[in-house]
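Priority: low. Protein: Sulfotransferase. Input follows.
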Amino acid sequence: MWEIGGVHTVEVDSNVVFLCRDPKDTFISLWHFTSKLRTSGPSRVCFFKYEEMKEKPAVHIRRLAEFLGYPFSPEEEEGRNSGGDIKVEYRTFFRRGVVGDWVNYLTPEMVEEFNRISQIKSFGVLV
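Result:
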């Protein structure tokens, strides 16, 4: 048995595929997203989990519309239930997703500190 970043595998001879994204790119995407919120309080924030949205997109689109103050009309609901799809532009929810884009936003000092914190959080010590 062995461990990668706190994940235990069952057998040493098993094949393991471990996919991750550079935490600095994830951080920059999160920063861009949260900076757009600019809310005055928690009542103006609505959280979604990606996995739940993927599982039931119509439920979450309805919840989002209600949160924004533009709920679907009965006619719109009827159209959706009869097979109509809700069309949402991709850019509405996703940024560019460019690998390594963090270099355009973080200074070398910020990267050094980010890497230090990431190592401690991932492995418990600096490696």
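The mean pLDDT is 75. The radius of gyration is 20 Å.
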